[in-house]
């Protein structure tokens, strides 16, 4: 805990400076009031829009009360880090149906480790300045309402596409949080939203996953279907997925605020293994060993090999008929996984086989 003589205003400025030195583009400080967001989440869960993501429903009131999750917490430092790779042609890839589309956040190294390490470094800097204090770092963690916290910390507003949007930076950024037991001055929350009458994200969604503005039925979202869903992808949604084999960015690509998105400063978030320009058929030929080797340290690992093949089979089913596409599918007609076999059969049927 801090000493009474601590200059908290100066410390909060230093935390922001150190955060930027550590590669975060923006740092804000939030208090603990998140009540309205908890009610929104409860309604969303009650409607079943979270699908198989049971972890979203766990943790009860701890989600909206950071001080219940980490006793002693007084403030949450919310930080954002841009991840948009600079020279990627990914939007173009969406139109190239035989090429795999991998969500922009997943083209490089997994962000969890990198951001956690930077948050730890930030905590150490604070400790060097003021001595021991209580803290805990979170990155993409289920019990933390990170978007609500970011809004409270003044980092942006939650847009109709349910992502945090920033007028100067769009939405291609990761969020991290440092819970602290320091009574720092809080930043002005973002209270105005700037979506206005725009509905571009709602209109573009390939699977019509938005129930309405600010409400996403994750069960229809391609990010959920290709990453979180463990079982088969519902047949009626498969043709709508196109060549998106890991996540989807459509509701960000179309967002006018992303004209202001800046390329990432992190080399780690640049595409690896040519994932921004890989043929579906070529990826479908990877053995499990190859998959594990090539996805080491990558968010793609999260899907696992079987789901990766399942997704690629759907992409190949949606690709134009060609010899490489048909050969790749035929080679896995007898795949060891029942789920993969079923998706391969579906894909071949799309090509009249
Ligand atoms: S990520 Fe894609 S599928 Fe999911 S809501 Fe956005 S546009 Fe729709
Ligand atoms: S596309 Fe339009 S409505 Fe959707 S989040 Fe962006 S500004 Fe808001």
Automatic annotation (TrEMBL):
Cellular component per GO, a single term: cytoplasm
Domain 4Fe-4S ferredoxin-type, residue spans: 182-215
Chain sites annotated for binding tRNA: 230
Biological pathway: tRNA modification; tRNA-queuosine biosynthesis
Gene Ontology molecular-function annotations: 4 iron, 4 sulfur cluster binding; cobalamin binding; epoxyqueuosine reductase activity; metal ion binding
InterPro entries for this protein: 4Fe4S_Fe-S-bd, 4Fe4S_Fe_S_CS, QueG, QueG_DUF1730
EC number of the protein: 1.17.99.6
The name this protein goes by in its record: Epoxyqueuosine reductase
Naturally occurring in which organism (per UniProt): Pseudomonas turukhanskensis
């Amino acid at each position: 805990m801090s000493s009474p003589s601590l200059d908290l205003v100066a410390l909060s400025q230093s935390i922001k400076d150190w955060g930027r030195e550590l590669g975060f583009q923006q740092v804000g400080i939030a208090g603990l009031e998140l009540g309205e967001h908890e009610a929104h989440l409860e309604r969303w869960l009650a409607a079943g829009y979270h699908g198989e993501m049971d972890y979203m429903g766990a943790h009860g009131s701890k989600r909206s009360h950071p001080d219940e999750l980490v006793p002693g917490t007084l403030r949450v430092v919310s930080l954002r880090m841009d991840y948009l790779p600079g020279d990627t042609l990914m939007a173009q890839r969406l139109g190239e149906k035989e090429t795999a589309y991998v969500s922009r956040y997943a083209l490089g190294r997994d962000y969890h480790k990198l951001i956690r390490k930077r948050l730890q470094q930030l905590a150490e800097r604070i400790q060097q300045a003021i001595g021991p204090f209580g803290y805990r770092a979170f990155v993409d963690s289920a019990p933390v309402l990170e978007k609500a916290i970011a809004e409270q910390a003044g980092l942006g507003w939650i847009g109709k596409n349910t992502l945090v949007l920033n007028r100067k930076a769009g939405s291609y950024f990761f969020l991290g949080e440092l819970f602290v037991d320091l009574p720092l001055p809080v930043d002005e929350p973002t209270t105005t939203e700037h979506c206005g009458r725009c509905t571009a994200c709602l209109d573009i969604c390939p699977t019509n996953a938005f129930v309405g503005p600010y409400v996403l039925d994750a069960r229809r979202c391609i990010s959920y279907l290709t990453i979180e869903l463990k079982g088969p992808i519902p047949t009626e949604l498969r043709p709508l997925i196109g060549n998106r084999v890991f996540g989807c960015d459509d509701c960000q690509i179309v967002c006018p605020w992303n004209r202001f998105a800046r390329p990432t400063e992190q080399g780690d978030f640049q595409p690896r293994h040519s994932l921004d320009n890989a043929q579906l058929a070529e990826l479908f030929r990877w053995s499990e060993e190859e998959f594990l080797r090539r996805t080491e340290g990558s968010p793609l690992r999260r899907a696992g090999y079987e789901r990766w093949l399942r997704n690629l089979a759907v992409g190949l089913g949606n690709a134009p008929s060609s010899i490489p596409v048909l050969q790749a599918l035929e080679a896995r007609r007898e795949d060891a996984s029942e789920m993969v076999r079923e998706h391969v059969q579906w894909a071949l049927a799309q090509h009249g086989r």
